[in-house]
Amino acid sequence: MKLYYRQCDQCKKGISKGYIYHGGDLYFCIGRGDICIKKYFGNKKAFTSLEDWNDTSSAGLTWDEFSAHWDKIEDNSYAYAFALDICSYTEWSEGCEIAEVYDSNGKSYDYDLVADNPNYELVDGDIV
Asked: Which of 56, 68, 92, 107 lies 20 to 30 Å from 12, alpha-carbon distance?
């Protein structure tokens, strides 16, 4: 059985790659047009760009606005680093485990009980 390092906060499925929101407050799976992160936040302005942060009259950005913002900023700039703190894509693998891991349906398993069990395969994020 395949197990994953995180759980999507929207669909509750196990994931080993996806979006991390505010340093681990929330996790979302990727693909299919970013359905889970869009569903979770809807049209809420839950995201911030550096420009938005400095503009006290701004109400924030929706997911679509924030993801479009990524296309406009230069890699390795301060604005890019700021955006990474808000939400970024990542892949989890061995060494990223916490107390629990999850199957594809979101059922949790104690990592210490399954890590060396040959009936379980921990899926690295770079593997589909």
From this structure: 68
Long-range contacts of 63-70 (CB under 8 A, 24+ apart): 63/34, 63/37, 63/38, 64/38, 67/34
| Residue 1 near residue 10, CB atoms below 8 Å | no
CA distance 99 to 121: 16
Strands of the 87-91 sheet, one edge to the other: 26-28, 17-21, 87-91
Instruction: Give the separation between CA 71 and CA 89, rounded to whole angstroms.
Output: 14
Q: Which pLDDT tens digit goes with each residue over 14-72?
A: 999 999 999 899 999 987 779 999 999 999 999 998 887 877 777 889 999 999 998 88
Q: How many residues does the chain have?
A: 128
Distance CA 119, CA 100 (A): 16
